[in-house]
Amino acid sequence: MSTRVAALADLTLNQALRVVVDGTPIALVLDAQGEVHAIGDTCTHGDISLAEGFVEGETLECWAHGSAFSLKTGKPLTLPAYEPVPVYAVELRDGDIFIDPTVTKEI
Prior knowledge:
Elements: E1 3-7, E2 16-21, E3 24-30, E4 36-40, E5 54-56, E6 59-61, E7 68-70, E8 87-93, E9 96-104
Antiparallel strand pairs: 1-9, 2-3, 3-4, 4-8, 5-6, 6-7, 8-9
InterPro entries: Rieske_2Fe-2S, Rieske_2Fe-2S_sf
Domain Rieske: 3-99
Keywords: 2Fe-2S, Iron, Iron-sulfur, Metal-binding
């Protein structure tokens, strides 16, 4: 079941926002094209919050070691990470963002 995690107005363009849904940390990103992305917030290389990193285009880069993850697929695009993070389907309803943390997108 989808859970309201934030208002669309809570997001800042090209910055990540960390939310926790049923114990699952998720990074929300509003990209330059106006699309909202939701990916696992924990870097697979170093157990670091990705929401503290840097958004560039369609990637979110871990601030600690520089691994960049695709916002669309969750796949790492640079080392040292080699395992992907989960990507969640986002539903927008009346200006609010909803996510079901038990359902990841098929990529």
